[in-house]
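ARCHIVE RECORD
Type: protein–small molecule complex
Small molecule: FE2/S2 (inorganic) cluster
Source of inputs: curated submission
Record status: active
Notes field left blank by submitter.
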Amino acid sequence: MWEYTDKVMDHFLNPRNVGEIEHPDGVGEVGSLACGDALKLTFKLDQNHRIKDVKFKTFGCASAIASSSALTELIKGKTLEEAAMITNKEIAEFLGGLPEQKMHCSVMGREALEAAIENYRTGGKKKHELEGNVVCTCFGVTDKEIERVIRENDLTTVDQVTNYTKAGGGCGGCKGEIEKIIERVRGEKVTHEVLGPPAKGKKLTNIQKIQLVQQTIDEQIRPALRADGGDIELIDIEGNKVIVAFRGMCAGCRTAEFTLKDVVEAKLREFVTADIFVEEYKEP
Ligand code: FES
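STRUCTURE (tokenized, with ligand):
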């Protein structure tokens, strides 16, 4: 028997927003019944391009139901740009935590949302597209997905990757490859930690600041924007002012100047320094 928090039990026994929206603006599907769980997410936007309604249908365990229910609660009222920033970690945290072996349920929720946003943006496939090369053929998990969960959740072992993605949980033939991916990502991390922020109270040098800003953009901000068809470019840093340009979908978004700028600023303040501010680059 798994140890579930009261909040997980509440969302499992009284799931919010169950069902399917008729004529939705976006539809996303992930997983398959053969793999043990599947999730379908549909949403509708209001006239301000915020998520007015969102519903899910899932075939899965208590934590899959609770994670899907939590996700719908988290994204209601948000713009798609804001919703795309939600990580599987935030879904788990909203529920007061999930058993480590069930973390893949929170990853599934985030992937369904990405697929639904992609479907809305492009009118394309509703099914989650696999990015990268398939590493685990038993569960259809790619190197890109594995790299992402390692980075976002700070994973260090093959067992953890299995808990978060299922990769490695079947025949086990992919475990060696997963180990190599962990080493690769952790290797990058070690380098980053050397470049990381100084202890509280110490001032960052200019070089440290530039490296940390770039690292934060690459690891904390860009993946979510790309999932939404956009991108971000670091243009310049002048003192505590960071100038960035939004590209792709983000550049055309009417709310980009207000919403994305604020999100980028919040991330940079969290990971670099509290007195940083962001300015959007305007083409001369
Ligand atoms: S190939 Fe990954 S568990 Fe079988």
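CURATOR ANNOTATION: Residues 14 and 52 are 20 Å apart (CA to CA).
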